[in-house]
Amino acid sequence: MAGQERPGHVTVERQGAERPALGEVVDALAGASDGLAREETGALRRRLPSPTALAQMIEDLRSVLFPGYFGASATTHESVRFYIGATLDRVLCTADEQVKRGLCFICKEEDPRRCPECESRAREMTWAFLGRLPEVRRLLALDVQAAYEGDPAATLPAETILCYPGILGITNYRLAHELYRLGVPLLPRMITEHAHSITGIDIHPGASIGERFFIDHGTGVVIGETAVIGDRVRLYQGVTLGARSFPVNEQGHPIKGIPRHPIVEDDVIIYGGATVLGRITIGRGSVVGGNVWLTHSVPPNSRIAQVEVRQLQFSNGGGI
């Protein structure tokens, strides 16, 4: 309301008026109780996972999954084994520390130094994650082949590895998905959001995505947490696989963890700008046209398109 100031609000007048004291601004920010500041009740402040360390870890993993393309690109057949071993040793140390930070952040123990369980769990999760890397590489090799075969503009599979945002987004997703499956907190979302910030492709690490997945162009693609995508699926830019509604509990808060995103079966193509919402099924072999808004299931081999555009002619502003 006019004439009333919000609690903690510091009024700044127009140029030429007296400037507020720095102490007033500090007091207003330090005293705010709006949920944006972390509060610690224990003896120590828990260290959050580091976005910088995770970004470097992902770059190291990309150099392992695509040897010769990233990192030390001068690796040879004789040296690649040593390079992968040294890089994975560095990844192991980083992942162990970052996973431990994620576990400690949600731990109930007031003093994280007194929680050996977080440390042992982090080590087990990290080794389990490393053990999944050969399978991740197998899937990525199929994704790269799908990108090369699915895009007539691709001259070589190497071009899709080096240049295509879809491959970068899928790489981060597949790594994050393994951490998600292991129950690692925070890190999976941080990894996929890192790719999101670079490519504009937003894949929740909880989504289930099959083999030979291809995202062409990619910008604006959104894939929700409980989406299930089969094999040989192709998406174009601006596709959304989202939720139609959010069931709430008695307190009015969204109920977590329930299936609410689409199931896309094998061999489906979804063209640019299409929006598919809710726990519906897109049957095998179907094609969803550009800019379609779809909220109901369709059987296998369906062809879903917009209503045909009508071209009409008007004169002297008629019809506007």
Topology:
Blueprint: H1 22-30, H2 51-65, H3 80-106, H4 116-131, H5 133-150, H6 157-163, H7 165-181, H8 187-199, E1 202-203, E2 208-209, E3 214-215, E4 222-223, E5 228-229, E6 234-235, E7 240-242, E8 263-264, E9 269-270, E10 275-277, E11 281-282, E12 287-288, E13 293-294, E14 303-304
Parallel strand pairs: 1-4, 2-5, 3-6, 4-7, 5-8, 6-9, 7-10, 8-11, 9-12, 10-13, 12-14
In short:
With 320 residues, this protein is α/β, with parallel strands linked by helices.
Evaluate the radius of gyration: 25 Å
The first-level CATH class of the largest domain is given as Mainly Alpha
Please, what is the average pLDDT?
88
Share in β-strands: 5-15%
Q: Compute the number of strand runs.
A: 14
How does the helix and strand content classify structurally? alpha/beta
Distance between the termini: 41 Å
Can you walk through the features of this model?
With 320 residues, this protein is an alpha/beta fold. It has 2 domains: 155 residues, serine acetyltransferase, domain 1 (Orthogonal Bundle), CATH 1.10.3130.10; 101 residues, 3 Solenoid (UDP N-Acetylglucosamine Acyltransferase, domain 1), CATH 2.160.10. Helix content is 38%, strand content 9%. The chain is built from 8 helices and 14 strands. The strands form 3 sheets. Strands 1-4-7-10-13 form a 5-stranded parallel sheet. A 5-stranded parallel sheet has the order 3-6-9-12-14. Helix 2 runs antiparallel to helix 3, helix 5 runs antiparallel to helix 7 and helix 7 packs antiparallel against helix 8. The protein is globular, with a radius of gyration of 25 Å. The two termini are 41 Å apart.
